[in-house]
Every structure is written in C-alpha cells, then in structure tokens.
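Retry 2 of 3 after timeout on previous attempt. Resubmitting structure tokens to design endpoint.
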C-alpha cells in the first residue's frame, strides 16, 4: 500500500474557481472526523499488505482542523498499519492558518511536508479569487514554516487568471522563486461549472487571457523554474532535487492507495472506489451500516488508457516493454501513424518514450490520441 489520502471536507469560504467537494458549515466538524476515523478502522485490512509510504491530508482545507485532529488521524494510521519510518506526511495548508502554534503542533504530530495554497502574490487577484489570505500573510507564513525546518515546502501557483498579463505574472513568478520553496505546483485556471468564475464568465464579466497568453505564461514559468534549479517532473509539478511529491507520484506510477472521507478515491490495481460527495449522506450511510461508495473494475482498456494518460505527463514516460508485456501492444509499430504526428516532441531512450518540454504542453492530447477506444 503506497499511501493514504484523507479528505477534509471543510473550508472557511468558497474560492471563485473551486469545484472541489467541501462545506463551509463547521458545526459537525468533530462528528465528521469521528466517522472518518471509523472508516479508517473499517478498512484496516486494506492497509495490512505493506508499509504505508505516504499520508496526504487534502480537501477542502485540512489546515482549518484543530491540530489535535490531524495528530489523531496520523496516530490512527500508525495503530492500524505499519508506517514507513521515512513516510512522507503532507498537509495542505492555507497561509492564514499557518500560525507559529499550528506549525509547531503539525510538526509534532508527524507532518513533514506542507503544500501551501498561495496561488498568487497579487492582492487584487487574491481578492478576485476570494482567497482567505493576502500576499503579506503568505510571505510571513512561508518564512515561519521555513524556520520550523519541515522536510519539504510546496507552493501552489495559478496562471491564466483574469486580467493578469504576462508582465504582472513575471513579477509573481519572481517572488515565488525568491522564496526558494522545495517544490512548486502550477495550475492553469479552468472554468468549472458552478463556480463564481464560471458564472461571471457566462455573464461576460470576466476578462480572461487568450489561450496564447496562457501558454506564454506557462512557458515562461517553466523556463524560469528551470533556470532556478527546478525539475519539471510532471506537467504541473516542479521540484528541487530530493523533493518530488511521493504521494502524488504514486498516482502517476499506478501504486495502490486508499482514500478516506467524502468524495475520496481509492485504487487497488484492479478496482477504483470513490466515496459519495455528500457530507451528511456519508455520515448517515455509515451510521446505518449502508454502502457509502461506488466502485469500477479496471479492465485492460481502462488500465492502458490510464497508464498512457498519467505516465505521458511525467519524466518517467512510457515503458515500451511494460506496455508490450502487459497489454500486448507494440507502441512504436501499432501506433506509428499517431507517433509521427508528434515527431520532435518526444525522445526514445533505453526503451522509455518521454515527451520533451514542447511535447509536455500537448501531453493530454498526445495521450488521448493513443487511447484504446
């Protein structure tokens, strides 16, 4: 078992771009944590096969939980399974939650990696996104965390934001690099249905950059991070040496994991499982002893498509011998026409097909062209 994902389904407020599953009603926060503990116990047999390598607190906003609850989840995993001594334990945190006291308690509980939702250092954009922090809070929080000497600090940045041209974005990137985090995750703004940004866009109230402008921002980010010593090991993820996200990498490498809490996903190599995305119904069904999840068997077609989709986005690339042995597909001959469309966008070395920097900009399109239908 590679990892445990714990979905904390609460936030202080709804960001303008977010369609993740969460609630801003905290009145039943403790009850939810109790039921999630029970799910962990119910599924303890799934944790027995091998040591747990990663624990990841996602959401939602895990950092809004009382630090004692974070500690309790980690202790519960230790009680139910063997936790690797070098396990990566990540907490997603908002800057405004990163008080000196909380940082101390998180580290004491065993958290050794923080994924910090900075998004930008432009206060106008932070207000537009309805973030709960400002730029100064983010700077101060990062410096406090550095003083606490966590194993890794990761910062999130969003590009393609409304009314953000290349020049302002360059200034934001410079500040990210100056703070010298161990890891940076970069996300292009997407307009998800039901979000404030999508609603404003439909009404013609959102001044979004063109696709060409968004691509220029991303290319600039890639180039600047490369100069600063960061490796683009996945399309959206950049790391200094020794600071790759082990948990997220387990998804791209097809390792097994379990997800705890409403909307959390699990994967055991043969089957994918996901909990319902409804807090009250999750707790109600658990209390009644009813099924609170759905499952999907992974057939060979799905397994191949998922392998191509995830690995194409990474530095690990497509293992041609594995594809041949596992799926009876000789990619170079069976998909020769498709590969010819991407000439100059990939390299072949020691049986591994990897997209180069230009190819990574087309990774999802490349994968979909290779899909078995």
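Retry 2 succeeded. Sequence:
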């Amino acid at each position: 078992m590679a990892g445990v994902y714990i979905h904390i389904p609460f936030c202080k407020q709804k960001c303008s771009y977010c369609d993740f599953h969460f609630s801003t009603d905290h009145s039943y926060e403790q009850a939810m944590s109790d039921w999630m503990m029970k799910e962990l116990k119910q599924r303890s047999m799934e944790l027995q096969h091998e040591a747990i390598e990663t624990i990841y607190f996602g959401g939602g906003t895990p950092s809004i939980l009382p630090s004692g609850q974070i500690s309790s989840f980690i202790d519960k995993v230790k009680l139910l399974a063997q936790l690797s001594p070098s396990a990566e334990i990540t907490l997603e945190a908002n800057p405004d939650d990163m008080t000196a006291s909380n940082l101390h308690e998180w580290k004491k509980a065993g958290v050794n990696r923080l994924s910090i939702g900075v998004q930008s250092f432009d206060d106008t954009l932070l207000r537009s996104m309805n973030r709960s922090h400002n730029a100064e809070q983010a700077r101060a929080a990062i410096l406090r965390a550095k003083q606490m000497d966590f194993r890794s600090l990761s910062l999130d940045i969003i590009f393609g934001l409304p009314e953000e041209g290349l020049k302002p974005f360059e200034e934001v990137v410079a500040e990210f690099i100056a703070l010298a985090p161990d890891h940076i995750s970069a996300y292009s703004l997407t307009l998800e249905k039901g979000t404030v940004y999508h609603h404003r866009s439909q009404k013609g109230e959102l001044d979004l950059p063109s696709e060409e402008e968004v691509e220029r921002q991303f290319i600039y980010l890639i180039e600047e991070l490369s100069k600063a010593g960061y490796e683009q090991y996945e399309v959206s993820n950049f790391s200094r040496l020794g600071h790759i996200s082990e948990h997220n990498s387990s998804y791209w490498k097809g390792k097994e994991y379990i997800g705890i809490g409403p909307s959390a996903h699990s994967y055991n190599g043969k089957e994918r499982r996901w909990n319902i995305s409804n807090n009250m119904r999750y707790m109600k069904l658990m209390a009644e002893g009813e099924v609170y999840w759905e499952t999907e068997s992974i057939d060979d077609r799905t397994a191949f498509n998922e392998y191509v989709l995830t690995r194409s986005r990474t530095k690990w690339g497509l293992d041609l011998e594995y594809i041949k042995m596992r799926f009876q597909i000789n990619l170079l001959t069976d998909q020769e026409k498709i590969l010819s469309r991407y000439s100059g966008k990939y390299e072949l070395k020691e049986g591994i097909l990897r997209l180069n920097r230009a190819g990574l900009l087309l990774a999802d399109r490349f994968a979909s062209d290779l899909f078995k239908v």
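Attempt log closed. The chain has a mean pLDDT of 95.
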